[in-house]
Amino acid sequence: MDNYIITIARGFGSGGKRIGVDLGLELGIPCYESQILSMASEYSGINKDRFVEVDERLRNFTSKLKLAPTTNFVLEPTDRHFVSDDNLFNIQAAIIEQLAHTESCIIVGKCANWVLRNYRNVLSIYVEAPRDFCARSVMERLGVGLDEASRLIERTDRYRADYFKHYTKGRDWTDPVLYDLTLNSGRVPPEDCVELIAHYARRKFA
Predict the structure, then answer these.
(1) How much is the pTM?
(2) Cα–Cα 20 to 30 A to 58, which of 21, 109, 110, 200?
(3) Given this model, what pLDDT does residue 68 score?
């Protein structure tokens, strides 16, 4: 197989992004997360700030919508819905699909496992950990207290779940059948998570 993609969905504070970065170093391939927003901006000509506003979250005026977008293609710049939330998602999806055709890489978040669900060269990972583990991680990384860490975890996981549900016709982002591997970083140290994923990736894509 010429190239492959590893997608990583992660609970906030589980260390999924760090695992993705370290996995990229282990495999010698790039890891994309916020870089997808920059690439989508360059591709479309839309200011990056607009993509940041909807980064794995629904804005208030769409937060109650549960239907997936009516189209799965990128609209023309002349279309009045060109900068709509759904089209911003479709632009990011187009970038992710382009990567699946052109290079080996890791993509953290962005509903990438769903966008690439029909691709054979994809390995999808979900990383989660118990709340106390995630809280300690957030407290250490952001320098906040327990109450604030818990609030951030609840809020972030909730808007990521709503975003995933909206763009996947109601699927639950924590559903293990959507992934090839599900890892508990509270029990399996991050360095071991990297080793396990790398080992399986090498076997799967040999």
Answers:
(1) 0.92
(2) 21
(3) 47
- Give the mean pLDDT per block of 10 residues along the chain (206 residues): 92 97 98 96 94 87 48 73 89 96 97 96 98 97 97 96 92 95 97 98 94
- At residue 82, the pLDDT reads 85
Within 13 Å, how many C-alpha atoms sit on residue 80's CB side? Answer: 0
Per-position DSSP letters for 116-178, written without gaps between them:
TTT-TTEEEEEEE--HHHHHHHHHHHH---HHHHHHHHHHHHHHHHHHHHHHTTS--TT-GGG
- Cα 52 to chain centroid distance, Å, stands at 14
CATH fit for domain 5-204, picks 3.40.640.10, 3.30.365.10, 3.30.70.2690, 3.40.50.300? 3.40.50.300
Tokens of residue 121, six digits: 């060269």
Rounded (10°) angle between helices 190-204 and 16-27: 50
DSSP label at residue 104 = -
